[in-house]
Specification:
The chain has helices spanning 21-35, 51-58, 64-82, 135-148, 252-258, 264-297, 305-325, 330-337, 341-347, 349-369, 375-388, 393-399, 402-423; strands at 2-7, 12-19, 92-97, 104-111, 125-126, 151-155, 165-174, 177-190, 212-218, 232-246, 426-427. By secondary structure, the chain is of the alpha+beta class. It folds into three domains: 2-111, Alpha-Beta Plaits (2-Layer Sandwich), CATH 3.30.70; 152-246, Chitinase A, domain 3; 264-427, Orthogonal Bundle (Trigger factor, domain 2), CATH 1.10.3120. Strands 6, 7, 8, 9 and 10 form a five-stranded antiparallel β-sheet that branches. The protein has a four-stranded antiparallel β-sheet with strand order 1-2-4-3.
């Protein structure tokens, strides 16, 4: 395998990669072996047609595409190991020579990590970030806990009011005709949740159990069902059950039930302490984010399009992994949201560029300030990773090679660079 690197404009490069004729021959033979069971020629049993006969019938290039697909990944990986340039994008591949008996040649157009011209990153100005806990915040946190411990009790002596949890039967009609998907029985609906078409829930306020009421609504113009967009509909609804929340009293008994403390005063102090810890952590993250953003604004770099596109796709793929873990496929997500993969890629473009610029600036600061992660930092990070993936630390270390370790060490150094910029930032007094 041989490699030639040609630098192009705008931080791009063209890698010309050559594999030997022998490697090409092996790939062609492999392609033949893979395909021969499907090849049928009169006079030969299926799967027994000699390669020479196939090439004579269909041309020598019949196996070239599969052979190229076999060769390119391995040859490209070897080229990356040999290449001294810092490649930051997926390659755009183009085959320039494929012919039996000759070397296999292809090009890979890639983006190179751009140089960063750092501005004055020490002493950047950021807005004031408040980390003090207010009485209102303590009250709100206690109220959330109170809501979690509320009881749902049945109500029979009054009509529906806002906030009630109802169970209802309904059937929808457009132009006097029932429509598909417009009927429900024993359907749970919290009034004011916004789960139904705008205007629907509000019209149920005042409805009595067992009595049919008519609800008139207009479907939105962007409604998912084409046949219902902008249409007026009448829903015949019957409330079957009404439930309301019963909140516990804020007394010592409540404190004992939701915490390890015997009094409200002690519980309130603990809530304050926990909120203070959280706000301090959030404030630290906010300071770092603001300081890094300010450092990026005073720095200069030229981001290659290919680098940005790679980051966009990576972000969408990360999102896909997250929702798949939650039991939702991307196809389902696209149906629900009316979007598609390409639209999502375009939507994340600003965030992708922001992420790239921040990372490049921080890496440049790591280099400028000679910031390094220690072995102790690495061991702590491994412990965190092992906990997340429910794995033994020794096993995690075993699975990580030198390349992975170097990447983790760089990530840790980048985190330290963010802390460095935040520590030296000047916070406004207002």
């Amino acid at each position: 395998m041989s490699l030639q690197v040609e630098k192009l404009e705008k931080n791009m490069a063209k890698l010309t990669i050559e594999a030997s004729a022998e490697d090409l021959e092996k790939a062609i033979e492999k392609a033949y072996q893979k395909q021969k069971k499907q090849i049928s020629i009169p006079g030969f049993r299926k799967g027994k047609v000699p390669r020479q006969m196939v090439e004579k019938m269909y041309g020598k290039e019949v196996f070239y595409e599969d052979a190229a697909n076999e060769l390119i990944p391995d040859a490209y990986d070897k080229a990356l190991e040999e290449c001294e340039e810092d490649i930051v994008s997926s390659p755009k591949i183009e085959v320039t020579q494929i012919e039996a008996g000759k070397p296999f040649v292809f090009t890979a157009t890639v983006a190179l990590k751009p140089e960063v011209k750092l501005g004055k990153y020490k002493g950047v100005k950021i807005g004031k970030i408040d980390s003090e806990v207010t009485e209102e915040e303590i009250d709100a946190e206690i109220e959330r806990e109170r809501e979690k411990n509320a009881r749902n009790i049945s109500v029979e002596d009054r009509p529906v009011k806002d906030g009630d949890m109802t169970t209802l039967d309904f059937e929808g009609f457009v132009d006097g005709e029932a429509f598909e998907g417009g009927k429900g029985e024993n359907y749970p609906l919290t009034i004011g949740s916004g789960a139904f078409i705008p205007g629907f829930e509000e019209q149920l306020v005042g409805a009595e159990i067992g009595k049919e009421v008519e609800v008139k609504v207009t479907f939105p113009e962007d409604y998912q069902a084409e046949n219902l967009k902008g249409k007026e509909a009448v829903f015949k609804c019957t409330i079957k059950e009404i439930k309301e929340k019963e909140l516990p009293e804020l007394d010592d008994e409540f404190a004992g039930e939701v915490s390890e403390f015997d009094t409200m005063a002690e519980y309130r102090e603990d809530v304050k302490k926990n909120l203070a810890e959280k706000k301090e952590k959030d404030a630290k993250n906010a300071r770092e984010e603001a300081a890094v953003k300010a450092a990026v604004e005073v720095s200069e770099m030229e981001i290659p399009d290919a680098m940005l596109e790679t980051q966009q796709r990576q972000m969408v793929d990360e999102f896909a992994q997250r929702i798949t873990m939650q039991g939702l496929s991307m196809e389902q997500y696209f149906q629900f949201t009316g979007t598609n993969y390409q639209k999502m890629v375009e939507q994340v473009k600003p965030q992708a560029e922001e992420r790239i610029r921040a990372r490049l600036v921080l890496e440049a600061i790591v280099k400028a300030e000679k910031i390094e992660a220690t072995e102790e930092d690495y061991e702590k990070e491994l412990e965190t990773m092992a906990e997340v993936y429910q794995m033994d630390v020794a096993k995690a270390k075993e699975l990580l090679g030198e390349k992975e370790k170097n990447n983790i060490m760089l990530d840790l150094a980048v985190r330290k660079a963010a802390e460095f910029v935040a520590e030296h930032a000047k916070e406004s007094k207002k």
